[in-house]
Specification:
Length: 424
């Protein structure tokens, strides 16, 4: 039997996590937050980063119990049964595919800044198709090659952000925080929910455990390092943008506008290029992780075995990769991902809450079968998992009616698919 190749180290997993969190949103986030809470923006970014770390710690603890591919699907299945586990894995794959389609279109719009012809029509479709096919081919050829590309694109997106921070910090005007604005509870709540979504993506870090060299130790490390790194970068980016731009809330491209102030046109172009690299890297990661999720569902008998086929030469889940990329490409070309993106609110609630509660449930279970003892335990007993559960459940109160309806429809579709697969 051909098995997946274990070729990923802890820093490969960390780069994959960072790549998924830091996408296109960071280039717009400082202005979005400033519109809600003004100069409190950097403090809000830091606070929600620490809150998100509490959820990531739950992912790290349960991740230290498993060696197989699957991410949150595995602990949810072990703690709450096969059906709940399937719904968690299904919703995760669903959001990865919708996000991939969304980011592919975002990349065409970003490049249209330089070449306007790419904004619509046949040129846009050709660009989206070529990018998807190239990234799919890299994913099929090997997980190590995929990680090299992800590592390179992650570095490519972090370099302009680092330069923005290191140069821009000297131009920050402390007077921006001399008079802090009064904010309402609704404004704070909206900002917190926006930032919870902005920090999303780290949940994919453990999906590739089946291709990691030492998953029970490296997956927890990658979760913690991912969240620490992205929290520092996003907070410092917000500080520089807020401290440099006089009217940041009015800016549509805060990082590019800020860079233009202290580095000129070259700085703005650097940030724009970084945004394009960031979206390409994010798209690469969506294929990498989305395919492994559906592979894990099939590997455990919750989907037809066709999805669990491993390529005899490349030792990658080639069928799952081709299927995931094909669905995402169809969504990108037809534009139907716009509606499907509404599922993300309920999908994150399902994933985060299932893992946080599974952390507590699995502590009471004896290691058996594929679940081993936790090699990483969150200090403080049940405090952090309970706090993380409350934070996760808070997503529900910020979801719109459309998001709730779309999420419910996706869950029902998953239930039907599960019934068909298990009947077979």
């Amino acid at each position: 039997m051909v098995e997946l190749r274990r070729a990923l180290g802890r820093w490969d997993l960390t780069a994959i996590g960072i790549n998924q969190v830091i996408g296109s949103a960071i280039f717009l986030l400082p202005a979005d937050v400033a519109r809600l809470v003004g100069a409190w923006g950097p403090a809000a970014v830091a606070a929600v980063g620490l809150a998100s770390l509490s959820i990531a710690l739950c992912f790290a603890e349960v991740g230290s119990r498993f060696e197989k591919t699957g991410g949150p699907y595995l602990p949810a299945r072990e703690a709450f049964g096969r059906f709940v586990g399937f719904e968690v894995g299904w919703m995760m794959w669903f959001t990865r595919v919708a996000s991939q389609a969304s980011v592919a279109n975002g990349l065409s719009l970003a490049l249209a800044f330089y070449w306007p012809v790419l904004a619509s029509g046949a040129p846009r479709m050709a660009l989206v198709t070529v990018v998807t096919l190239v990234l799919t081919w890299i994913n099929v050829v090997g997980v190590k090659q995929s990680s090299w590309v992800v590592n390179a694109l992650t570095i490519g997106k972090l370099l302009p952000l680092t330069l923005f921070i290191l140069v821009g910090i000297w131009y920050v005007d402390p007077a921006r925080w001399a008079s802090m604005p009064a904010v309402t509870t609704d404004q704070v709540g909206s900002a917190v929910l926006l930032l919870i979504f902005a920090y999303g993506g780290y949940e994919v870090t453990g999906v590739l455990a089946g291709e990691a060299s030492n998953p029970k130790r490296d997956v927890p490390f990658a979760f913690v390092m991912t969240m620490i790194t992205v929290t520092v970068i996003m907070t410092l980016t917000s500080i520089v943008a807020t401290g440099v731009l006089p009217a940041i809330a009015e800016s549509r491209t805060p990082l590019a506008d800020g860079a233009a102030l202290f580095m000129g046109v070259a700085g703005a172009l650097m940030i724009s290029a970084g945004s394009s690299v960031s979206m390409a890297g994010n798209n690469m990661g969506q294929i990498l992780n989305g395919s492994r999720t559906i592979f894990a569902l099939a590997e455990n008998g919750d989907l037809p075995p066709w999805f669990a086929r491993v390529h005899p030469v490349y030792r990658t889940p080639s069928n799952a990769i081709l299927f995931t990329a094909g669905v995402a490409l169809a969504l990108a070309l037809t534009g139907s991902f716009v509606f499907l993106a509404a599922v993300s609110a309920v999908a994150r609630l399902v994933m985060y809450l299932a893992v946080c509660l599974a952390t507590l449930v699995l502590r009471r279970r004896q290691p058996a079968g594929e679940m081993g003892p936790a090699l990483f335990l969150i200090p403080g007993g049940p405090v952090v998992p309970l706090l993380a559960s409350v934070i996760s459940f808070g997503i529900l109160f910020g979801a719109t009616t459309q998001q709730l309806a779309a999420g419910a429809a996706a869950l029902v579709a998953g239930a039907v698919l599960f019934w068909i697969a298990t009947r077979r």
